[in-house]
Amino acid sequence: MAIAVFFANGYEEIEALTVVDLTRRAGIETWMVSITDEKAVTGSHGICVSMDKTLNEVNFDEVDMLVLPGGMPGTTNLGACEFLMEKVKEFDQAGKYISAICAAPTVFGHLGLLKGKKACCYPSMEDGLVGAEVIYESTAIADHILTSRGMGTAIEFGLQIIARFQGQEAADDMAKKIVYKA
Questions:
Q1: % of the chain exceeding 70 in pLDDT
Q2: Residue 182 pLDDT greater than 70, yes or no
Q3: Of 1, 66, 104, 124, which has the fewest beta carbons less than 10 angstroms from its beta carbon?
Q4: Alpha-carbon distance 9 to 77, whole Å?
């Protein structure tokens, strides 16, 4: 079981790294993946992080979930990565987990993956959730698709990912361990 979190220059640091931190704490193999050939990726607030892999090093047969963090221009850069978009569509068609937070759920919307499904995203970007039933909760679960609203919902987003792989009890336990909403 592995999760791949995709990093593009301009990613939102908290959204990406919170998922990585929480899932690794839970013992879920989580890869930080650069969508470029460079292992160093700089976020939207100038924080440079070294990745575990580049996109061409990922064996997608070993991946159980794709995660797209938001941020600008990170979301735009993710959406422009044709190879990654093909993989997102393949995962969707196979019913495998895909998740996105902040502006990144609009990538799913533009690919036509949200039609008739509940979804949420960063406030003011809802038009990008093409065909979705837009909701205004912290996270939205629609079958194999998980979306979330932004930096302030990053912990809940990460806990929802843990729940998908290890069950709600494990996610609740992690929430207690990190003193989330104590």
A1: 99
A2: no
A3: 124
A4: 7
Looking at every residue in the chain, the average pLDDT score rounds to 97
- pTM of the predicted model, to two decimals? 0.97
Question: Which CATH number is 94's domain given?
Answer: 3.40.50.880
What is the 3-state secondary structure of the chain? CEEEEEECCCCCHHHHHHHHHHHHHCCCEEEEEECCCCCEEECCCCCEEECCEEHHHCCHHHCCEEEECCCCCHHHHHHCCHHHHHHHHHHHHHCCEEEEECCCHHHHHHCCCCCCCEECCCCCCHHHCCCCEECCCCEEEECCEEEECCHHHHHHHHHHHHHHHHCHHHHHHHHHHCCCCC
Question: How many domains does the chain contain in total?
Answer: 1
pLDDT of residue 1: 79
Does some domain include residue 130? yes
pLDDT band at 87 (very low <50, low <70, confident <90, very high): very high
Gyration radius of the chain's alpha carbons: 15
Question: Both tokens of residue 31?
Answer: 């890869």
Domain that holds residue 39: 2-177
- Note whether residue 182 is domain-resident: no
Q: Would you name the residues annotated as active-site residues?
A: 102
Residue 43 reports pLDDT greater than 70: yes
